[in-house]
Amino acid sequence: MTTTAKILGSQPAYARPASLDNTGSSHQDGDRHVDEADGLTKREAFAMAALQGMLANNAIKADNYENAPLMARGAKAMADALLGELAKEAQ
Asked: How far apart, in whole angstroms, are the C-alpha atoms of residue 8 and residue 63?
């Protein structure tokens, strides 16, 4: 995986910036609530979507988890491939 793909993959997938109050100041001080969340990385979100697609396949039995490690590796590989393609566009 290229450095650009690694950077893209480690970025938050569903990030939200810190919210501002009605005066325009950030809620990052003292006892104020910070409305900020990083959540999953893009790589994790892409792998999750790939794995969901695999699990939605009716040919895979829900009670047979023998292929789980293979499917997990495949989901990571698909996420990394997508990040590689996105990195090409970012350059």
From this structure: 35
Q: Length of the chain, please?
A: 91
Per-residue model confidence as pLDDT tens digits over 38-58 = 678 899 999 999 999 988 886
C-alpha 77: how far from its chain's center?
14
pTM over 0.85: no
Residue extents of the structural domains in the chain? 3-14+40-90
Residue type at 75 in one-letter notation: A
Query: Residue 31 to residues 19, 22, 37: CA-CA distances in angstroms?
Result: 14, 17, 17
Three-state DSSP at 20 gives strand
Residue 83 CA to residue 62 CA, distance in Å, equals: 29
Which residues are CB-neighbours of 38 under 8 A, at least 6 positions away? 12, 15
The answer to whether 21 and 33 have CB atoms below 8 angstroms apart is no
